[in-house]
């Protein structure tokens, strides 16, 4: 396993979010203008679907990313 | 005098119109709040097109050596329509049609003397239809999807059910999805092994490959700028999971077709965190841990930072890192032990790590792209992929959205 970049990435994410993450607060609908920004969607982009397809074929892992988790050959 | 009469008449008419206007506004307000169209309305149309090209030198068809050159020109169009039911629920219908054309140099090595391969060059067609019923007041919804996919030697039929539940304050969302794919493929063996009496499927047999998966996800608004999603997607596959035209070479010099267990359990767990840093920067992150019963373990992390130059123009550089411990059945060319029960030389299932880097460019001008009002959004993405097993690839994607 190639661990170093992964450890660095996960560590960077943990540090960033532990600094910025406040406790959950009840956000009112009129306070959601930033959360409703198109770039804030909690899903993969429409344009990512083919990237996810080739990653599904070129790597052993699949699923939990909004892409396919089964079906189709993927044998090329 | 005549002028005065005209002035009085105009004044009187203007008074009448002043009196009439509030009534019209009131009725218009009433219309928008109570009337919901039961006619089908076109919500949006998405056209996504991509070109993918890869190069490598560990083809599984030739036992872990040989060219992996492959190209894929993929296109999908989806049309989203909606209307309201008698009960006031919003019905959304999504029709999608995909057509891929691909060429694979290694597939021609199944039978090098003729072009009889599964996919030296092939077209895959895959339509699907979804229906979702939404209660707009609560945000709760459910729906069904049916799908079909066909290529030279492989057919797939799929069905799915999904349900969404929102909390009262709409800050917490739970999604559940169950799906099944019932696939069949015509078995193709390497030309020199077609007459051998081995175990398993023979040349020309029709073999099943069925996939069953469930997906549970929980989305949570954490603050005015931060939201997260936690997803778990257990799945089970059964049937012919090996690719029978892939060769495996053993230490004693013998050769056999790929053989893998007929069942596979997968368990991916994922976390997404999106943070609105400022009006110009958004941070999108993704992490996934994956395990299965073939011994494969993988970590995937992704970060994307959309930079918004204006409300309508953004550039999104991204980086994705993946590392996996390969399946226990993998061995490179000529290194399988003759007594092995299962074996593969497919480098997609080997120990590897990969880097994927690129950027997306997106415009959503209020007057439409290039002044065409209906063309609501244009997005272009490019990504470069490098895998530690000497495979690299490039992908270009174009997404056009019409409204």
Task: Outline the structure in words.
The complex is a heterodimer of chains A (76) and B (403). By secondary structure, chain A is mostly helical. Chain A has helices at residues 4-20, 49-58. Chain A is flat, with a radius of gyration of 17 Å. The mean pLDDT of chain A is 78. The longest helix of chain B has 33 residues, at 2-34. Chain B has one helix and 20 strands. The model of chain B is unreliable at 11-32 (pLDDT under 50). Chain B has one domain (37-402): Porin (Beta Barrel), CATH 2.40.160.40. Chain B has an 18-stranded antiparallel β-sheet that branches. Chain B has a two-stranded antiparallel sheet with strand order 11-12. Chain B is mainly β and 403 residues long. Chain B is globular and about 75 Å long. In chain B, strand 14 (282-292) and strand 15 (297-304) form a beta hairpin. At the A-B interface, helix 1 and helix 2 of A face strand 1, strand 2, strand 5, strand 6 and strand 7 of B.
- The whole-number mean of residue pLDDT values of chain B reads 89
Alpha carbon gyration radius of chain A: 17 Å
CATH architecture grouping of chain B: Beta Barrel
Q: Radius of gyration of chain B in whole Å, from Cα? A: 28 Å
Low-confidence stretches of chain A: none
Structural class category of chain B: mainly beta
Keywords (chain B): Signal
InterPro entries (chain B): DUF3570
Protein name (chain B): DUF3570 domain-containing protein
Secondary structure blueprint with pairings:
The complex is a heterodimer of chains A (76) and B (403).
Chain A: H1 4-20, H2 49-58
Chain B: H1 2-34, E1 41-55, E2 70-84, E3 90-104, E4 121-134, E5 141-151, E6 154-166, E7 172-186, E8 206-221, E9 226-232, E10 235-239, E11 247-249, E12 255-257, E13 263-276, E14 282-292, E15 297-304, E16 307-308, E17 313-325, E18 352-363, E19 375-387, E20 391-402
Antiparallel strand pairs in B: 1-2, 1-20, 2-3, 3-4, 4-5, 5-6, 6-7, 7-8, 8-9, 8-10, 9-13, 10-13, 11-12, 13-14, 14-15, 15-17, 16-17, 17-18, 18-19, 19-20
């Amino acid at each position: 396993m190639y661990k170093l970049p992964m450890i660095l990435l996960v560590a960077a994410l943990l540090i960033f979010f532990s600094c910025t993450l406040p406790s959950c607060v009840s956000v009112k609908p009129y306070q959601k203008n930033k959360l409703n920004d198109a770039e804030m969607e909690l899903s993969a982009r429409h344009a990512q679907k083919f990237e996810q397809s080739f990653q599904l074929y070129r790597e052993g892992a699949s699923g939990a990313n909004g892409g396919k988790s089964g079906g189709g050959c993927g044998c090329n | 005098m005549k002028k005065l009469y005209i002035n009085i008449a105009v004044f009187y008419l203007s008074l009448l119109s002043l009196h009439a206007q509030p009534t019209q506004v009131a009725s218009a307000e009433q219309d928008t709040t109570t009337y919901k169209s039961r006619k089908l309305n076109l919500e949006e149309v998405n056209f996504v097109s991509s070109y993918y090209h890869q190069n490598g030198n560990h083809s599984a068809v030739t036992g872990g050596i040989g060219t992996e050159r492959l190209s894929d020109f993929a296109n999908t169009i989806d049309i989203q329509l909606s209307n309201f039911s008698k009960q006031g629920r919003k019905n959304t219908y999504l029709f999608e049609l995909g057509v891929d054309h691909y060429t694979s140099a290694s597939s021609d090595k199944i039978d090098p003397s003729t072009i009889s391969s599964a996919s030296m060059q092939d077209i895959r067609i895959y339509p699907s239809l979804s229906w979702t019923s939404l209660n707009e007041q609560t945000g709760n919804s459910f729906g069904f999807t049916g799908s079909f996919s066909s290529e030279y030697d492989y057919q797939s039929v799929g069905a799915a059910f999904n349900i969404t539940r929102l909390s009262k304050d709409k800050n917490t969302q739970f999604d559940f999805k169950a799906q099944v794919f019932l696939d069949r493929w015509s078995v193709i063996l390497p030309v020199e092994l077609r007459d051998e009496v081995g175990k398993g499927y023979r040349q020309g047999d029709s073999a099943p490959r069925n996939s069953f998966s469930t997906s549970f996800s929980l989305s949570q608004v954490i603050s005015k700028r931060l939201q997260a999603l936690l997803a778990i997607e257990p799945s089970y596959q059964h049937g012919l999971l090996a690719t029978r035209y892939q060769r495996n070479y053993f230490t004693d010099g013998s050769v056999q077709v790929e053989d893998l267990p007929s069942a596979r359990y997968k368990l991916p767990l994922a976390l997404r965190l999106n943070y609105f840093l400022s009006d110009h920067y958004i941070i999108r992150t993704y992490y996934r841990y994956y395990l299965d019963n073939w011994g494969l373990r993988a970590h995937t992390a992704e970060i994307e930072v959309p930079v918004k130059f204006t409300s309508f123009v953004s550039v999104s550089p991204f980086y994705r890192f993946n590392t996996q411990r390969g399946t226990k059945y993998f061995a490179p060319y000529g290194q399988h032990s003759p007594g092995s029960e299962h074996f593969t030389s497919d480098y997609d299932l080997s120990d590897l790590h990969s880097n994927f880097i690129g950027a997306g460019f997106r415009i959503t001008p209020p007057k439409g792209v290039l002044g065409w009002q209906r063309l609501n959004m244009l997005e272009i993405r490019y990504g470069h992929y490098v895998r530690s097993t000497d495979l690299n690839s490039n992908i270009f994607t174009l997404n056009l959205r019409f409204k």
